[in-house]
Specification:
Helix content: 25-40%
Strand content: 25-35%
Order of helices and strands: EEHEHEEHEEEE
Mean pLDDT: 91
CATH architecture of the largest domain: Roll
Largest sheet: 4 strands, mixed
CATH topology of the largest domain: Ribosomal Protein L9, domain 2
Radius of gyration: 25 Å
Number of helices: 3
């Protein structure tokens, strides 16, 4: 019997796939637990169409992420921070500071958890920071320049 899986089933297949299983397994296990439904020609076509739409949406999202990566790779951020002696910062530049600076510069929202800092930035200088934009696209390297904040008297 052919069934369309409504959830991932171990050793049978993933959600949305059409699987060939024995009649008893389908009637006694898959169908009562709502893990699958009987595969009719119309329902198979409908599921295939949904899967194609999901794949097309994933491709579009990956293309947009690639464009975002290119924009971020060309971005240079200047972050002014309060500085003490020997060019050490009061505090540090955090992932949130970098995400806010990216939004201010390019109007691109980046989750602070997608910014990979090897260690907190605690000195004035130039740093390359990796920003993950999508799982299928390699991270962008954003140049971050930390400068002393202008003092107000």
């Amino acid at each position: 019997m052919q069934v369309i899986l409504l959830q991932d089933v171990e050793k049978i297949g993933k959600k949305g796939e059409v699987a060939e299983v024995s009649d008893g397994y389908a009637r006694n296990y898959l169908l009562p637990r709502k893990l699958a439904e009987v595969a009719t020609p119309g329902r198979i076509a409908q599921v295939r169409k949904i899967m194609e739409e999901k794949a097309a949406a994933a491709r579009r999202e990956a293309e947009r992420a690639s464009e975002t990566r290119e924009i971020l790779a060309r971005t240079v951020l200047t972050i002014p921070m309060a500085v003490g002696s020997a060019d050490r910062l009061f505090g540090s530049v955090t992932n949130q500071d970098i995400a806010s600076a990216i939004y201010a510069a390019r109007k691109i929202r980046v989750d602070k958890r997608n910014i990979e800092l090897e260690e907190p930035i605690k000195m004035v200088g130039t740093y390359l920071v990796k920003v993950a934009v999508h799982p299928s696209v390699e991270p962008a390297e954003v140049k971050v320049i930390v400068v002393p904040e202008e003092r107000k008297n």
